[in-house]
Amino acid sequence: MREITYQEAVREAMSQVMREDDRVFILGEDIGVYGGAFGVTRGMIEEFGPERVRNTPIAEAGIAGAAIGAALTGMRPIMELQFSDFVTIAMDQLVNQAAKICYMYGGKAAVPLVVRAPAGSGTGAAAQHSQSLEAWLAHVPGLKVVQPSNAYDAKGLLKSAIDDNNPVIFYEHKLLYSTKADVPEELYSIPLGKADIKRSGTDVTLVATSIMVQKSLAAAEILAKDGISVEVIDPRTLVPLDIKTIVDSVKRTGRFAVVYEAVKRGGYGAEIASLVAESEAFDFLDAPIVRLGGKEVPIPQNPELERNAVPQVEDIVEAIRNIMRKA
Amino acid sequence: MWLIRYFDEKVDEMFAKGLIHGTTHLCVGQEATPVAACTALMKQDKITSTHRGHGHCIAKGADVAKMMAELMGRTTGYCKGKGGSMHIADLEGGNLGANGIVGGGLPIAVGAALTSKMLKENYVVLCFFGDGASNEGSFHEALNMAAIWDLPVVFFCENNQYGMSGSVKDMFRIENIADRSQAYGMPGHVVDGNDLQEVYDVVQAAVERARRGEGPSLIEAKTYRWKGHSKSDGRKYRTREEEAEWKAKDPIARFGQRLIDEGLATQHRLDELRKKALEEVEQAVVFAEKSPFPTIEMLEEDVYAL
Ligand SMILES: Cc1ncc(C[n+]2csc(CCOP(=O)(O)OP(=O)(O)O)c2C)c(N)n1
């Protein structure tokens, strides 16, 4: 196998699907010759032309609505939001239209749409270009929410997202774009709703999403030196959520923590924590459940403040050590 | 037009009696716009509709029995009773759906037109919306996008003079909403929305232009809704004199008179058609009343498409 970056994996998945299926096309701001704000669509317009790699005006609600209308009438659009933060501007179309069309019309219509959204902090772009708003969308029945944490998952999950007959919000963490993994050349799918155990362990179950998976694996490495064995689970998709894999793990380890970059308050980690607390794993818990999330602040520009706004490897290490002490 | 009028009057009556749940927005008085606009379309053409969508739906060929069943929350309704008045869709008939969000349908119409162009399906999308909707951002985003991509859309504004209680006199500094077409580089037309023939002619030309690949148009039809915005509207924001003035311009009576004057129909024939429409509505109620309500198991179905 060869190593490619997360960014290349996303591009490769789109290109391979577009070669197979004429109904798939991309639309978004500056995705043509410019290649998108993060270069993800670079080179695609040369192969597929401006019809299928369609530059749009700067009009997020309009783009989302157009993508929905195209999806409703037989296309399979992939919409690129330049930054995931701008989902707020497209929110009406995504929440009030895309998410509800199937239900409102009694199951007689489908919106096979993928919204690709570069998310997360760490680039110094500050409060309006660094958010992790996945919990907002995961809250809405009718939407699916995906957060790939590495290049391999990104390719397989994107293929499934495009094949899905529902609107799927596909979060790409900006700091992951340049990370590499072994990725098969051929197209493959990773089913939505299937968690992945990224590292097996026996002392504590740590659920992590998006870039926190990488940080959790680094933390687990450090903790292993102290003899603490951490199981790291990446749900990969928040909706649908594979709670069973998580619950089974907690029953084995007896301890549970969840870490996510989004603001801790009202974040999706709280949902996962509640599901674990409500499950049969509750009786197996030897320590209180721990949630680690971003601080309750907008993301600041200053790099030191920015770093401190979201969980880092050392925060995860400390949290896990605390859990082990309480047991 | 009679079918639309009787349908909505029946809905009004049933609503008052508590036989229909939720809310409804009636289009009594503005029947010429949907009928004329949809007559200019072919079967394969599509429409997007609004919260005030019964007329659009009927004019695009929907079955009033299924519509009534939907309003009464029955499984035989267009959306199995899950959508109600504001969400009737008839995809097979080319109706991409009514919409509870003012202005929500405009970009969706643009996307449907994009499909037509990309798959070379050669259908045109007629996008209905109100005067109020044309002050939403989605209106501007949609018109611009349709224009730059030369999409086969006809933006059709039913200017019934009010967005809820907001009069166009207070909400616009321009005389004609159609003038906004200039800002996006597409033709704009103002028509008398209570004159069926005039609306038809203008829509027909815009549809043909769109079908030839020459891009979108904006049409504004001046009309009036006789009833309140929705239920429990005391209509305090307008005078009874104004209402009477518009009622004198009843589009149905006007078109009927014209047919008689031109020797195209007799009063007898028009009465027959009127009676037929009334019967169809009565039968729709019977059908709906006999239809089952959804089961609780159906509550959690259809959230996601398979
Ligand atoms: C985005 C949004 N804002 C407000 C409303 C509440 N509302 C429903 S209909 C309506 C008036 C719309 O006026 P217009 O577009 O002129 O259509 P008309 O009712 O006259 O047919 C309003 C304010 C809504 N449904 N959606």
Produce the secondary structure layout:
The complex is a heterodimer of chains A (327) and B (306).
Chain A: E1 2-5, H1 6-20, E2 24-28, H2 44-52, E3 53-55, H3 60-72, E4 76-80, H4 87-98, H5 101-104, E5 114-119, H6 134-138, E6 144-146, H7 151-163, E7 168-173, E8 180-183, E9 196-199, E10 204-208, H8 211-225, E11 230-234, E12 237-239, H9 243-253, E13 256-263, H10 268-278, E14 290-294, H11 303-309, H12 313-326
Chain B: H1 2-16, H2 32-39, E1 46-48, H3 54-59, H4 64-71, H5 105-118, E2 125-130, H6 137-148, E3 153-159, E4 162-163, E5 166-167, H7 168-171, H8 181-184, E6 188-192, H9 196-211, E7 217-222, H10 240-247, H11 251-261, H12 267-290
Parallel strand pairs in B: 1-2, 2-3, 3-7, 6-7
Antiparallel strand pairs in B: 4-5
Thiamine diphosphate is lined by residues 51-52, 100-102, 130-133, 160, 162-164, 229 of chain B.
Pfam families (chain B): E1_dh
Domain Dehydrogenase E1 component (chain B): 3-296
Keywords (chain B): Oxidoreductase, Thiamine pyrophosphate
Task: Explain the overall architecture.
Chain B: Keywords: Oxidoreductase, Thiamine pyrophosphate. Chain B: Residues 3-296 form the Dehydrogenase E1 component domain. Chain B: Pfam families: E1_dh (PF00676). Chain B: This is Thiamine pyrophosphate-dependent dehydrogenase E1 component subunit alpha. Chain A has 327 residues and is an alpha/beta fold. In chain A, 39% of the residues lie in helices and 20% in strands. In chain A, β10, α8 and β11 form a beta-alpha-beta unit. Chain A is globular and about 60 Å long. The model of chain A has no long low-confidence stretch (mean pLDDT 97). Chain B has twelve helices and seven strands. Chain B has a five-stranded parallel beta sheet with strand order 1-2-3-7-6, with helices on both faces. The longest helix of chain B has 24 residues, at 267-290. The radius of gyration of chain B is 19 Å and the shape is globular. Classes of the chains: A alpha/beta (327), B alpha/beta (306). Chains A and B meet through α3, α4 and α5 of A and α5 and α6 of B. Thiamine diphosphate binds next to β4 of chain B.
